[in-house]
């Protein structure tokens, strides 16, 4: 029965005693979950539910969910020989407080703490944040800056996908039917790297970003070891700013000037006007954030590992 709890009757407020029907599968083991999903690839996976439940039409009949919340082995944070492995079901609260993340991946600790408010952070998972595939997801730019990869699992086996190739369109990913996101792998950052994260929104908490930037920077002009910038809310997907990185590493003496930064960003970003902001505002904020990320090299010619 794959941990099938059976059809439930749920009674959303305002719909009367009849309610609407839904099916809720709650496997305990990963093998069970994968077998069930292979048989029924249309099942809606649900982790913390903070996106799924908001998006669901409470009046529609026949929702079928596969809850990952009770599946053993999908949660937790561990150090590996090459970095940090984070189970897809690990919550923002766990990530934001975890000593390994706070020490090795401070930008991810910061983005987890900036995701919604405390009640959301207690339920929202890292896997759900990137599988929901919003271009505004707060943790996505950080995973891009850190050069993360993800493990997608199915009954047929597992595959490893670099996160920079994971989002293939607006709110779409390369996940195939029958696959569950199992783990997010984040490589060790170079020693002395600057880890940067900044979310610009209407407020500091409970606001979707107008622009989000994460950066991992190590070395310096003429000797860069690592220049990676991940952005949120500036294109149809979270993006890794490759033209910006090439402009910075290609400038051997000092840093590119603001005009060159803006020109490079113009090639990376596809900003648009929408309900939260304008394309022009986003472009200007993006340049300012890049300047802020690079500030230690502007002001001191050195680096600052803390942010
Ligand atoms: C009030 C409020 C405020 C919010 N604020 C923010 C914010 O500031 N920043 C931000 O980035 N987000 C925000 N969100 C969005 C949401 O909380 C996050 O995206 C969250 O991380 C989603 O995680 P979840 O576990 O709740 O995902 P769910 O809602 O359970 O799932 C989201 C999607 O991912 C899929 N999925 C989940 N887990 C897996 C898996 N392991 N494998 C395959 N598919 C999977 C689901 O099928 C679904 O499509 C907010 C939401 C609310 C309601």
Question: What do you see in this structure?
Answer:
This protein has three domains: 4-67; 77-187, Uridine Diphospho-n-acetylenolpyruvylglucosamine Reductase, domain 3; 194-299, CO dehydrogenase flavoprotein, C-terminal domain (Enolase-like, domain 1). The chain is globular. It has 307 residues and is α+β, with helices and mostly antiparallel strands. The protein has helices at residues 30-39, 52-55, 92-97, 99-104, 106-113, 118-123, 126-131, 140-145, 242-250, 258-268, 279-293, 295-299, and strands at 4-10, 20-25, 44-46, 63-67, 77-79, 83-87, 149-154, 157-162, 167-169, 172-173, 180-187, 194-200, 211-218, 226-232, 239-240. The protein is built from twelve helices and 15 strands. Strand 5 (77-79) and strand 6 (83-87) form a beta hairpin. Bound molecules: flavin-adenine dinucleotide. The site of flavin-adenine dinucleotide has 29 residues, from strand 3, helix 2, helix 6, helix 7 and strand 11.
């Amino acid at each position: 029965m794959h941990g099938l709890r059976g059809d439930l009757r749920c009674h959303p407020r305002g719909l009367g005693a009849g309610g609407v029907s839904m099916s809720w599968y709650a496997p305990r083991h990963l093998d069970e979950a994968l077998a069930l999903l292979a048989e029924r690839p249309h099942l809606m996976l649900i982790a913390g539910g903070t996106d799924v439940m908001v998006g669901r039409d409470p009046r529609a009949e026949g929702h079928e969910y596969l809850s990952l919340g009770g599946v053993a082995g999908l949660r937790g944070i561990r150090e590996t020989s090459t970095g940090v492995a984070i189970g897809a079901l690990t919550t923002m609260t766990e990530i934001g407080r975890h000593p390994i993340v706070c020490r090795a991946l401070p930008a991810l600790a910061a983005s987890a703490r900036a995701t919604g408010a405390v009640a959301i952070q207690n339920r929202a998972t890292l896997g759900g944040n990137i599988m929901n595939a919003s271009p505004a997801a707060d943790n996505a730019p950080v995973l891009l800056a850190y050069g993360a990869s993800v493990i997608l699992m199915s009954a047929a086996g597992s595959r490893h996908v670099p996160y920079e190739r994971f989002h293939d369109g607006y709110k779409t990913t390369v996940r195939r039917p029958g696959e569950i996101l199992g783990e997010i792998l984040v490589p060790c950052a170079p020693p002395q790297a600057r880890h940067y994260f900044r979310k610009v929104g209407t407020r500091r908490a409970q606001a979707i970003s107008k622009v989000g930037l994460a950066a991992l920077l190590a070395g310096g002009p003429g000797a860069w070891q690592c220049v990676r910038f991940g952005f949120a809310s500036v294109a149809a997907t979270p993006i890794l700013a490759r033209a910006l990185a090439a402009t910075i590493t290609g400038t051997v003496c000092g840093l590119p000037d603001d005009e060159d930064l803006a020109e490079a960003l113009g090639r990376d970003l596809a900003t648009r006007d929408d309900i939260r902001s304008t394309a022009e505002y986003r472009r200007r904020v993006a340049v300012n954030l890049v300047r802020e990320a690079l500030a230690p090299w502007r002001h001191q010619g050195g680096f600052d590992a803390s942010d």
